Amino acid sequence: MQPVETSVLEALRAGDDVAFATLVKEYGASMLRVARMYVGSRAVAEEVVQEAWLAVLNGIDRFEGRSSLKTWIFRILTNIAKTRGQREGRSLPFSALVADDEPAVDPERFLADGQWTSPPPSWGPEERLLGDETRAVVDAAIAELPPSQALVITMRDVEGFSAEEACNALEISETNQRVLLHRARSKVRQALEDYLG
Asked: Domain range spanning residue 48?
């Protein structure tokens, strides 16, 4: 455990409100986005996040440091969100969502040696100026993904989780995480190419 994390953990265990408020400020929005992937409404996602924070406070003395504090918090969140989502009838197990035989990128876009026949276009200055519009396209593309892919790409590319953190928080294998992320990125890339093309 890193010294900063150790001091935060000690402060939380001592009941330091400032340390807790700092964690809520740092992770709250990310937690809400992740919870939203499991449940049907923002209001329910907010309840899930509140329940997760209560579980963190109640369980902080049992935190053993086998993962980062962030990973531990998000694992609590995803477990609560999965349970709540299943109760709402919206959630499916990851295993039911992974089996999809569609290729991530159309095979016709590659030559026999694996090179692109038509590479994805690069983003020039004009495209960068369309940042808000582009972000809206990305958000819409993520919203159209299967739930498991949307969750992984949100955690990895939007929230900045490492592969290990995402795997630990979601309790999935590294291979499963890579497949889900690759498929999600491919579909989002295609949506961007369609938009920019």
From this structure: 3-88
